[in-house]
Write a structure and sequence with these properties.
heterodimer; A: mainly alpha; 3 helices; 5% strand; elongated; B: mainly alpha; two-stranded antiparallel sheet; two-stranded antiparallel ribbon; 2% strand; globular
Chain lengths: 84, 561
């Protein structure tokens, strides 16, 4: 593979990582821990929102994040003709 | 049928299944023994990873732990799932592309040094042995409670089963037994949860059930109320400091991503995209249990308080006396009024409950049918055995591959190495069993150490190895050693009271030993980067390795569409 394409592919990958990991940080460390008291003033059904993020919501988002990453990378691999 | 007959039947059926799979999937080469010939389907690998990951602690102890700690228990829920995002995005695909057998393989080759390899082997062995002792103990516990055999006999039976399929089948056998074990353990975990959720809230989905109402009041509000009444801390808010919760969660996440027995599972699939996929499947399968556990915690806690609090001791249900004989629950009538006072105030409180009881006794507390209670026993065994097998494989491959083949005797034949791998698995099982029968007091403390060490050593070395081409052996080795040193020092000082010991007030920045892994990891990153900037670049071949692992394949041609 050409060095230039390789660099481009890698840059694109890093961009995806930065976006996905920011969301990862947001739902767990920010919503579930740092802002938990503020979010707990909001309620969905029987759940306080901050508590819900810490014990439920963050986990659902984690699963979605990985599947989004799989999708994005498969597309990227196709675009660069890798691993057919 | 009574509980015990049901338990024997279910345990018998599942054990026969595991042994059958082991015979059918024997390993015949080191490639099959270490990484199942790299031919595992991503969904199968996801299932196996989930079983490998969810140990006796996840199955038996976690819901109870959350039950007693409320919001603070979130550190385990987020910590032990969030790590998979790191694994999928930062480690698994690249390590799969690298394409060797073990984690020390990567460290040794990427940092072109046998010193790095040995440091990695030592970390892998400490982490895995720490972990496996707890699993064998879990097997013994389940046997002793449900089948009324001696704990030690239980450990021996467990040793024999693991020995059989780990030694015979290697990674190949382990993978397919783990797939079966996942099915058993998740079924065993979900059935009582669904039953209880319907009973208490009318909602069959536990994840929604614990947010709904029972008797006109939201379950969580009711529990918060009960907690306030008895003087406990409100269930939905925490007692730990924010910074500590932050650090513990991060340490568990990063530690999870750095655990060798988890990483090595991603070496078993065919290609890079499969490694990404199996991480996704693994987390999905894990999330089923991990999102149910907090629901069980709330159901069990409410049920338990309502069943025993201020009730006459003589009128308590049967399960209470059943569990009293195991010593996991005990009652001491301090004021001699014949009632059970269960309150936060230690001087008045009369009830002591072991956290493990919450999952094991939950079906009995909720009056579920006997076969459901027996199912929990089979599930607990599946969880403990699958994790133990994965760990034993890491231990045996560290010895036969990383030490014997790579350092001591590189000329050893594939057959010879396979024999060595099997022998080291046997020795590892015996040592693990010994720990199970004579559990050292520090087991509970050392599990935190296992995560801390994985976070402080492997994670930075691997991530820098992939994402920073300039990282060299001087930086990585110093980083790993310094990170480990800090972790061990902090743990020994505050857990074992060495080096002057200390109390909560002496913690650095208010971070507990459980959360210190995050700290040690940051130190490792810092030291590695500083040392690397003063020392020579890695050789050209190594830089090419890095370029190579960053792209899934070099088979495709260079044109873009």
């Amino acid at each position: 593979m050409d060095k230039k394409y390789q660099k481009k592919y890698w840059k694109n990958n890093l961009k995806y990582l930065a976006i996905l990991l920011s969301i990862w940080f947001l739902v767990s460390f920010v919503f579930g821990i740092l802002l938990v008291d503020e979010l707990n003033t909001i309620r969905i059904g029987g759940f306080k929102l901050g508590f819900w993020f810490a014990q439920q919501g963050s986990i659902y988002v984690f699963v979605v994040l990985i599947f989004v990453y799989i999708k994005l990378m498969n597309k990227l691999d196709d675009k660069y003709n890798l691993e057919k | 049928m009574d509980i015990q007959t049901w338990t024997w039947v279910l345990v018998g059926i599942t054990f026969t299944l595991y042994i059958g799979i082991a015979i059918w999937t024997r390993a015949s080469s080191t490639g099959e023994f270490y990484v199942a010939g790299k031919g595992v389907h991503p969904i199968a690998n996801g299932l196996a990873t989930a079983a490998d990951w969810m140990s006796a602690a996840s199955f038996i102890s976690m819901a109870g732990l959350i039950s007693f700690s409320g919001y603070d228990g979130s550190v385990y829920l987020m910590g032990w799932t969030g790590g998979y995002v790191l694994l999928a995005l930062l480690l698994a695909p690249y390590l799969r592309k690298f394409g060797k057998f073990t984690v020390p393989d990567f460290i040794g080759d990427r940092y072109y040094s046998n010193v790095a390899r040995v440091v990695a082997v030592v970390c892998a062995l400490i982490v895995s042995f720490t972990y496996v002792a707890g699993q064998m103990r879990g097997v013994g516990l389940v046997f002793s409670r449900f089948l009324e055999v001696d704990i030690n006999t239980g450990v021996l039976i467990g040793m024999f089963i693991v020995l059989f399929y780990a030694v015979l089948g290697g990674m190949k056998g382990i993978t397919y037994t783990q797939v079966a074990q996942y099915c058993v353990l998740i079924f065993a975990f979900m059935v009582p949860a669904i039953f209880i959720s319907i009973q208490m809230t009318g909602n069959p989905i536990p994840q929604l059930g614990f947010g709904s109402s029972s008797d006109g009041i939201y379950l969580l509000d009711k529990l918060d109320g009960l907690h306030r009444e008895l003087g406990f801390h409100e269930y939905t808010s925490g007692t730990k400091s924010k910074i500590d919760v932050f650090f513990i969660t991060a340490a568990l996440m990063v530690g999870t991503a750095g655990l060798p027995h988890v990483i090595v599972r991603f070496f078993t699939v065919k290609k890079v995209s499969d490694a990404r996929k199996s991480a996704g499947w693994a987390l999905l399968f894990i999330a089923i249990l991990y999102t149910t556990a907090p629901a069980i915690a709330v159901f069990a806690r409410t049920n338990m308080i309502e069943t025993v609090s201020n009730k006459k001791y003589t009128e308590l249900p049967d399960w209470f006396s059943n569990w009293e004989t195991t010593g996991l629950i005990s009652f001491d009538d301090k004021n001699n009024d014949g009632l059970v006072q269960y309150v936060a105030d230690e001087s008045v409180n009369e009830l002591t409950i072991d956290k493990d009881i919450m999952v094991l006794a939950n079906p009995e507390i909720a009056h579920l049918p006997n076969w459901v209670i027996a199912l929990v026993a089979a599930g607990g065994l599946a969880a403990a055995l699958s994790t133990a097998a994965g760990l034993l494989l890491v231990i045996s491959s560290s010895v036969s591959h990383d030490i014997i083949k790579k350092i001591v005797n590189p000329k050893i034949s594939d057959k010879g190495e396979l024999v060595a791998a099997r022998l080291s698995a046997v020795v590892a099982v015996i040592i693990a069993g010994w720990f199970g029968i004579n559990p050292p007091d520090f087991v509970a403390a050392t599990v935190a150490l296992a995560f801390g060490l994985a976070a402080a050593s492997f994670f930075p070395a691997i991530v820098l190895g992939i994402f920073y081409k300039r990282m060299n052996k001087e930086g990585a080795i110093t980083g790993m050693v310094v990170g480990m040193f800090f972790m061990l020092y902090y743990m020994m000082r505050f857990k074992f009271d060495w080096f002057g010991g200390g109390t909560k007030d002496d913690w650095w920045f208010g971070v507990s030993p459980e959360g210190f892994g995050t700290f040690a990891m940051l130190i490792n990153f810092g030291v590695s980067l500083i040392i690397a900037s003063f020392t020579p670049k890695p050789p050209k071949e190594v830089q090419e390795i890095v370029d190579n692992i960053r792209i899934p394949s070099d088979a495709g041609d260079a044109q873009m569409h």
